[in-house]
Amino acid sequence: MRFLSIYKTVERGVPPTQEEMARMGKLVEDAMKAGYLLATEGCLPSAAGARVRSTNGKLTVTDGPFTESKELVGGFAILQAGSREEAVEYARQFLLVAGDGECELRQIFEAGAAVCAAPRV
Amino acid sequence: MPAADPHRAIEAVWRIESARLIAGLAHMVHDVGLAEELAQDALVVALERWPESGVPDNPGAWLMATARHRAIDHFRRNKLLERKHAELGRELESQEMAMPDFDTVNDDDIGDDLLRLAFIACHPVLSKEARVALTLRLLGGLTTQEIARAFLVPEPTIAQRIVRAKRTLAEARVPFEIPRGPDRAARLSSVLEVIYLVFNEGYSATAGEDWMRPALCEDALRLGRTLAELVPNEPEVHGLVALMEIQASRARARVGPAGEPILLLDQDRTRWDHILVRRGLAALQRAGQLGGALGPYALQAAIAACHANARTAAETDWRRIAALYDALAQLMPSPVVELNRAVAVSMAFGPEAGLELLESLAGEPSLQAYHLLPAVRGDLLTKLDRLEEARAEFERAATLTRNARERSLLLGRARACAPGSAPS
User: Fold this and answer.
1) Residue A100 or A35, more confident
2) What is the rounded average pLDDT of the residues A24-48?
């Protein structure tokens, strides 16, 4: 089964240090090698982004930065795990490196392979 | 909000950490069976303590420290050293006689230890079934119960298989080492074979109701990806990973809403998993970059890549696929490869050309009970509008398959050949 991990954190306004980059780089490399991390990306500051919303069919676009929100999406990962608990453990390992923030884990719907969605046990 | 179930959390940690743990312990105690027992002991302690204390920040290190203590206790208690001393006599002096070096294992060595573990679990002294069970148990972190379920065999059978395998390894005094020299290629190919067996058991279940058991595919992919990083200079490892990634990418497209199989050329390609396709193509590229002629896994991956690269079935480069099968048939001659080559040739050069190749396989004893031979013949005969012959072939194929889903697919094709039925 697969999980989308959406990482949310307070926007710091400063780029990560060399050391932070190196630690995160090592975690990502190890995770890719171990085979459980299928894809991951980190975001630039929200100033470079936008929010596109549809309300009653009316579209509004708000350019970043998103100053009104406390925690913002900072990146995502797609994890392959044997159980939700395993995905939680990967998220925990990530947060130990990433620092304060939250990983929202969502199991990804895998159509056509419904058996996939059932935990092994 | 209810707290997460601590036992399930511990099981998850186990699945992640157990291979490294067992590998590190085996390095210390030179005995895979003992290493696994020590790791299990550490797990038992974790199951007692973590529900109270919470999962430690570095659960792998915690488990290793706990298991080390158990190992020291074990050696003191059993006075194994003295026995060993008496057994081995004067031959081995100082370093071998010392207490196992509990501090030698560090993070950099763990990769080598994992590799040693893979080599020993897939050692040729073991039967194929034993290699598979031991690999899933030691490297995949699966419980005996999980392995039994995956292979649809009773749990005691698997438990027995694992116990016997460990005993065989101990009796044969198989060293915990990375084979070098002429032995290495054969040993590596045994590891690759085991991983691919696991994958195939998941990808096209040979028995039972389900067409595939995806958890096994995921286990095999994980093992393969890990192995590829442990021996990055072996092209066939990347070839195997590429093959599995690309095959797995089709998983959700190859099963219909009612669980029925959908053949490659009929699949909705937009439903292929493009993350896996990309990973597969990258792995194939790594295999190619290492130089030399492609091996059997890389060739099969290259064939799979031809399909992955075609946006529609009609765009498939069948001539290239036929050529790749040609190369594969020379490297690894087998009736099954020949059968696949016949399919590729029929697509590239017409059904008659394919049928002609199949003629030479008709008397092949190893294919007498293989359902795909009549299934392919039926398919080619259908294309030539020889429906009566085609129907007989499909019916014969249906009697040969052990998979219930596949049987009903084949019977459906047989019915479609009957006079008066609408052309499909």
Assistant:
1) A100
2) 90
Instruction: Give yes or no for A62 touching B (CB within 8 A).
Output: no
Judge whether B157 and B165 are in contact, CB under 8 Å: no
Residue A51: phi and psi, rounded to 5, are -115, 130
Question: Which secondary-structure segment (H or E) carries A6?
Answer: strand A2-10
Q: Chain B: nearest CA to A86, how far in angstroms? A: 5
A112: left (phi over 0), alpha (psi -120 to 50) or beta: left
Distances from the Cα of B119 to the Cαs of B28, B39, B94, B139, B191, in angstroms?
A: 17, 19, 28, 11, 6
Cα dihedral sign for B188, B194, B197, B199?
Answer: negative
Q: Which two tokens stand for residue A83?
A: 């159980």
pTM: predicted TM-score of the whole model, two decimal places: 0.82
User: Is the Cβ–Cβ distance between B300 and B192 less than 8 Å?
Assistant: no
Q: Given this model, what pLDDT does residue B96 score? A: 43
* Radius of gyration from C-alpha coordinates of chain B: 25
How far apart are the CA of B58 and the nearest CA of chain A, in angstroms? Answer: 8
Alpha carbon B252 to chain centroid distance?
Answer: 19
Measured CA to CA, the distance from residue A104 to residue A6 in angstroms comes to: 5
Contact B275 A39 (CB under 8 A): yes
CB-nearest to B226 from A33, A86, A110 is A33
- β A37-42/A102-107 pair status: unpaired
A83 touches chain B (CB under 8 A): yes
**Is the Cβ pair B251, A33 closer than 8 Å?**
no
Contacts with B257 from chain A: Cβ below 8 Å: 112
Per-residue confidence (pLDDT) for residue B213, from 0 to 100: 72
Of the candidates A84, A86, A116, which has its C-beta nearest B214's C-beta? A116
Q: Which parts of chain B have pLDDT scores under 70?
A: 1-4, 79-108, 205-212, 420-424
| Residue B373 near residue B367, CB atoms below 8 Å | yes
Type of residue found at B397: A
Q: Which residue has the higher pLDDT, A75 or B213?
A: A75
Between the two ends of chain A, the Cα-to-Cα distance in Å is 13
Distance CA B279, CA B249 (A): 10
Contact A1, A121 (CB under 8 A): no
Integer Cα distance of B396 and A71 in angstroms: 63
Chain B CB contacts of A36 under 8 Å are 16, 222
Q: Of B15, B213, B252, which has the smallest distance from its Cβ to A86's Cβ?
A: B15
d(C-alpha B224, C-alpha A96), whole Å: 27
Tokens of B320: 């290239």
